[in-house]
Amino acid sequence: MTVSPRPIDLLVTGAAEVATPLGTTPRGGAELGAIRVLEDGAVACHDGEVVAVGPAAELAGAYRATETLDAAGGTIVPGFVDAHTHPVFFGTREDEFEMRVAGRSYVEIARSGGGIAASLEGVRDNSLELLLERLLVRLDRFLAFGTTTVEAKSGYGLTLVDELKCLRAIDTANRAHAVDLVPTFLGAHDFPPEYRGQHEAYVTLLVEEMLPAIAESHLARYCDIFTEAHVFDLEASRRILGRARELGFELRMHVDQLTPLGGAELAAELGAASADHLEHVSDAGIAALAAGGVIPVLCPLVPLYLRETQEAPARRMVNEGLAPALATDFNPGSCYTQSMPEVLTWAALRYGFSAAEALTAATLNAACSLGLGAELGTLEPGKAADLLVLDVDNYHHLTYELGRNPVRAVVKRGRVVLGAAE
Amino acid sequence: MTVSPRPIDLLVTGAAEVATPLGTTPRGGAELGAIRVLEDGAVACHDGEVVAVGPAAELAGAYRATETLDAAGGTIVPGFVDAHTHPVFFGTREDEFEMRVAGRSYVEIARSGGGIAASLEGVRDNSLELLLERLLVRLDRFLAFGTTTVEAKSGYGLTLVDELKCLRAIDTANRAHAVDLVPTFLGAHDFPPEYRGQHEAYVTLLVEEMLPAIAESHLARYCDIFTEAHVFDLEASRRILGRARELGFELRMHVDQLTPLGGAELAAELGAASADHLEHVSDAGIAALAAGGVIPVLCPLVPLYLRETQEAPARRMVNEGLAPALATDFNPGSCYTQSMPEVLTWAALRYGFSAAEALTAATLNAACSLGLGAELGTLEPGKAADLLVLDVDNYHHLTYELGRNPVRAVVKRGRVVLGAAE
Fold this sequence. Notes:
- The structure is a homodimer.
- By secondary structure, chain A is an alpha/beta fold.
- The first copy, chain A, has helices at 56-62, 94-101, 106-111, 116-125, 128-144, 160-176, 199-217, 234-246, 263-270, 283-292, 301-306, 314-319, 340-351, 355-362, 364-369, 397-400, and strands at 6-13, 17-20, 36-39, 41-46, 49-55, 63-70, 75-78, 80-85, 147-153, 180-188, 222-225, 250-255, 274-277, 295-298, 325-326, 387-390, 407-412, 415-418.
- In chain A, strands 8-9-10-11-12-13-14-15 form an eight-stranded parallel β-sheet.
- The two termini of chain A are 31 Å apart.
- In chain A, 60% of the residues are buried.
- The interface between A and B is large, with 37 and 37 residues.
């Protein structure tokens, strides 16, 4: 009996290997590095989804593809999911970087009018159109670095109208661009200067006016907060996030970044989807995250970029069974990079992650932190056909190569959006 | 009186700024960051040299260019000079990287047959043509990252015939490729396995056979050595380099990288052009380098890549008046990167170098370490027209942006070799 080949949209073939984590749930502990590596593998895509991953010779016989993407001896991996970014801002802050390099601290720079406050003006003074234009350029760069899904926070407006402007820019960019954006409201990023000395009043504004209006706009899936003693302390955080949860937001939190405040414990208590940064997390905090099934989103470049000495105890978290995600934390102040390849290398160097562990954290676990584990983050039938062709002959180069972007082609929802198919 | 415009080959114009160090001698101390920044500047090039740097409007009137390169609001800087690389090897060593990430040390990996020994086979077993093919691909990458001159070491052959093969590959690549290579003989990179237990005999081989034959070949300008207790100790180093000097080589040295052996002092004693690495240099070593006018070649990424904690005391060296150069140390084991933009950012983050300091160290000072300060490393009349157009509106982005290559166009000896002129 002869079975005629099934017609499909796209076959990605000619790869030295396909490397992918497996499953739909976060992988922690020893499972973090348990990826599947298929030599001479290929990926069949149809209707935006993966329909098969298997030996190239087998797939060539089983499918007749409208388009073929030649991986030319490269490596196929899932598209990166960047689980923590602040991409809506106007100007850059290289002046502040030079100050920090000259020896001034994050808090010092913030107190002298730099930091988050420095980006407020740019967002408040510029139109949605101008913000959108900059955002779209940044999405091109995310895509060039192989990031196919981006968690995108507001948080440089800090008035209802300016936060809505940022979330509308995210929404419009999401519709216009191949990269998928997952929107997060971060009105609790800092206290705006006009609320200096009236922090309680800004918390009340958030709880009584901003959160309900943002909820009604349906422009944000997550609510995030910068929980730290000098900004939103545990009590304010509990009040804001409690209200957000009532209004239907899911929660993400910046916690224990600069001091061991107990933010991780609060994230677990509130059932947050993710607890991010965690440079100063305590043992109790790690235990709480493990018990609560909260995903730690780790940003290995941030303390290095801030010239801080304390880094997240990533290996300890993994040993405790946690399933970390990796992220750039792309923003104009504390980490001006959009490169997940860069993040993977530094996760290896600073956390001791193997390339397989880093890959899982940057794809499947990151997707799970966004509630998208069933749809994204691995190359398996039924998942979105979001994949990369890297110009290296094995996935170990993801961490081994430093400072070079190995992404040669990007497929998003089954469409070749970077590089050329035939 | 009307003066008619002078015909020239190339005008690079339309830049937000031109940023360049000045002069022909190494800049240290407070002068390290004393660069010239010219807003709306342009660069006129003729016969491979810079003929003028000045306001775009002025140069547009003074010159009639055959070709124009539009910097499109970007920044013009001199081409990078990478003062320390090991670019002649065959295979990559990602397996070893994974071992290191899993917790094993440089010396442990070397003792288990990894390290330099792992690259010997690849060089010995492959032809000049195959080594050359790989080298030329790497030169394309250097150029893409804005490096227009590369110091290139042999050192993965460690027999006369294999070292000559490497140096011939460098010589052939130098003639064939736009990137200029400065060749260095590094037969004293390690003891080859066939000399295990007979180190004295290998030193004698170097002194009596290899060095004279390499000198006669005229394929190397410099002689380099890995001075470290477990490889070439001070006595062996003195013997080898003394002979090299007699034979007409100029000297470079790997010193005080893993232990404070006193290699810096020896470099000063021998009048070496550069002392490289220096993570463990002593105060006496710094004083000796300063007294001897030796250029420290710093590789900020190497200890990070090796997961070592000790980094070069770069700021202390600058304060003592030293004029550091920056380099990648590109090699398949201890630093797999070819990106000078990456090096500049980490020089800022780890050494506290301002963007201006990093730029001087990566251009003028690096050129001086290769005896090319009169020809290269700044944009001034009479110097080689080796320049970059960066897609950023000021030079501070050289350090501020992490993990992205900002090089949009490269001019080498007055010719546009990357990006398009009109």
